[in-house]
Write a structure and sequence with these properties.
This protein has 313 residues and is of the alpha/beta class. Helices cover 37% and strands 18% of the residues. Bound molecules: alpha-D-ribofuranose and calcium ion (CA). The site of calcium ion (CA) has 8 residues, from helix 1.
């Protein structure tokens, strides 16, 4: 089996960090062509720095990291320091990165990669607001058809919103970008809150990370110790939901997940429900399905895979 070529578009973010580590620990299944940073959980100057920090933590210092858009397409930036802390990677104390950003803008890297690749061979994995991907689609629409698949973390249906009563953070920050993606015609798989809220880092699971007794294992456990406060307080959950690693685990072993191919539209007009992913789960409209909307996972299988792979870094 040849490794799947992906671009990770990300706003680290502790859960983004774990997703990046999982991808870099899985070279048989995944070839990371590049990591593109976007403003989201924290401003761009922090998300780009955090992406470099995580690549150094993984030991894979040859990974190319690009800085992308510092604000949404049409709206002011909304950030989530209340969840991720002021650095975006609160929890562990990690050194400033020695590796440097690439000079090229992330949007141009995405465009050049799609232009140079064979059609259907590159998967885009957005883990934050969809600004970079949408900007690339707007700048080079002729390349949209070359994308193999978009596998993204974002949205919610039964779980409803986490940043407003109706919207999940990644979609809410840039709903116009999300609408461009969901109307692009590219095959899309969505890992929404409906499934990521079932990927909870319980104490036992976090102890398994810590007991790896490696810099990676300890750092992931410390990230979770910080990151879980918000969800435990808000939802009374048993631990932090590992949102973004679900995207990478889906690529490695899709059998861990299940969902339904449905129509998903994005609310871009109403202030009350802005950024809502309106998923036609029950097929009550004649809108054609445009996304595989994942609703469930084998949580124990997910954490076994994740822990086993983190042990390899
Ligand atoms: O709503 C969860 C998503 O928003 C995750 O990707 C998290 O990192 C934040 O970006
Ligand atoms: Ca994220």
């Amino acid at each position: 089996m040849t490794a799947r070529k992906i671009i990770i578009d990300t706003d680290p973010g502790q859960d983004d960090a774990v997703a990046i580590l999982l991808a870099l620990a899985s070279p048989k299944e995944i070839e990371v062509l590049g990591i593109t940073a976007v403003a989201g959980n924290v401003p761009l100057e922090l998300t780009q720095k955090n992406a470099l920090i995580i690549c150094e933590l993984s030991g894979k210092t040859n990974v190319k990291v690009f800085a992308g858009c510092d604000r949404p397409l049409r709206r002011d930036l909304v950030t989530a320091e209340h969840v991720h802390g002021k650095t975006g990677l609160d929890g562990p104390v990690l050194p400033d990165p020695k590796i440097q950003l690439q000079d090229q803008h992330a949007v141009d890297f995405i465009i050049d990669t799609l232009r140079e690749c064979a059609a259907g061979t590159v998967t885009l994995c957005p883990l934050g607001p969809l600004t970079n991907i949408a900007a690339a689609f707007e700048k080079a629409p002729e390349l949209i058809k070359k994308v193999q698949e978009i596998v993204l973390m974002g949205g919610a249906y039964f779980e409803v919103g986490n940043i407003t009563p109706a919207a999940e953070f990644n979609i809410y920050v840039d709903p116009q970008a999300a609408q461009i993606i969901f109307r692009s015609g590219v095959p899309i798989t969505v890992l929404p809150l409906d499934v990521t809220h079932k990927a909870l880092v319980t104490k036992k699971r976090n102890d398994a990370f810590r007991n790896l007794a490696s810099p990676v294992g300890i750092a992931v456990a410390q990230m979770t110790d910080f990151f879980e406060r918000f969800d435990i307080k808000k939802y009374g959950s048993e631990g932090a939901p590992l949102h973004d690693p679900c995207v990478i685990a889906y690529l490695i072993n899709p059998d861990l997940f299940s969902g339904r191919h449905v129509n998903v539209e994005i609310e871009t007009q109403s202030e009350l429900t802005l950024g809502m992913t309106v998923a036609d789960w029950w097929g009550v409209t004649d809108r054609p399905p445009n996304a595989m909307f994942i609703s469930d996972l084998d949580a124990d299988g997910f954490f076994s895979l994740l822990t086993e792979r983190l042990a390899m870094l």
